Amino acid sequence: MNIFIPLLAGVLVGYLLRKRGKKLSTDLPMSAALLLLVFFMGVEAGKIKIDAGWLLVSSLVFAALTIIGSVGMALLMGGWR
After folding, report:
1. pTM of the predicted model, to two decimals?
2. For the chain, where are the E strands, in sequence order?
3. Is 24 helix (H, G, I), strand (E, B) or coil?
4. Which residue ranges run through the membrane (predicted)?
5. How far apart are CA 40 and CA 18, in angstroms?
6. Cα Rg, the chain, nearest whole Å
7. From CA 34, how far away is CA 26, in angstroms rounded?
8. Alpha-carbon span 4 to 14, nearest angstrom
């Protein structure tokens, strides 16, 4: 629920600025916010203890099964050409 308040505030500010007709560049603040978000996600991920070997193997198996399933469905739906 806490994420909706800033989202709605941003929509309201954007709507009000649109009526003024002046363009406001948001590229730099958005890039900075995105970099901070990725940084703090990395900090949180670094706090968690995981078994890296098990995670690697299960990720590779999941990726392989996903690829096999996608190719299988493509062959079923489209056939060989």
Report:
1. 0.47
2. none
3. coil
4. 28-46, 53-77
5. 32
6. 22
7. 12
8. 15
